């Protein structure tokens, strides 16, 4: 990433977006589970606060998770499940 290498302050601001992108499978599945569990599709009113809450929650979760591990939880499982495929011919 040329922009973030040349502008370290930019990296700090876009870090949460990069973290969400690095574990997108986990974030997408987490959103589906949360929407179903909370019954959000049945709530009346504006979805903007819900969207803001989900985006903020995903950014915080991804940033904290990737601070300690290199991949998201589902990305770790997918990597482990497909590890043997590199030896198949």
Keywords:
mainly alpha, 5 helices
Architecture blueprint of SSEs:
Blueprint: H1 2-6, H2 8-22, H3 24-38, H4 48-68, H5 73-82
Helix pairs in contact: 2-4
The end-to-end span amounts to 34 Å
Beta-strand percent range: under 5%
Overall 3D form: flat
Task: Give the helix/strand class.
Answer: mainly alpha
The stretches of 5 or more residues where confidence is low (pLDDT under 50) are none
What does this entry look like structurally?
This protein is mainly α and 89 residues long. The protein has 5 helices and no strands. It has helices at 2-6, 8-22, 24-38, 48-68, 73-82. Helix 2 (8-22) crosses helix 4. The termini are far apart.
Compose a concise summary of this entry:
By secondary structure, this protein is mainly alpha-helical. The protein has helices at about 1-5, 10-20, 25-40, 50-70, 75-80.
């Amino acid at each position: 990433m040329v922009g973030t290498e040349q502008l370290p302050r930019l990296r700090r601001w876009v870090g949460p977006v990069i973290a969400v992108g690095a574990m997108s499978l986990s974030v997408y599945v987490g959103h589906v589970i949360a929407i179903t569990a909370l019954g959000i599709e049945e709530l009346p009113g504006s979805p903007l606060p819900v969207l803001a809450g989900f985006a903020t929650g995903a950014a915080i979760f991804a940033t904290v998770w990737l601070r300690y591990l290199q991949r998201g939880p589902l990305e770790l499982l997918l990597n482990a499940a497909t590890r043997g495929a590199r030896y198949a011919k």
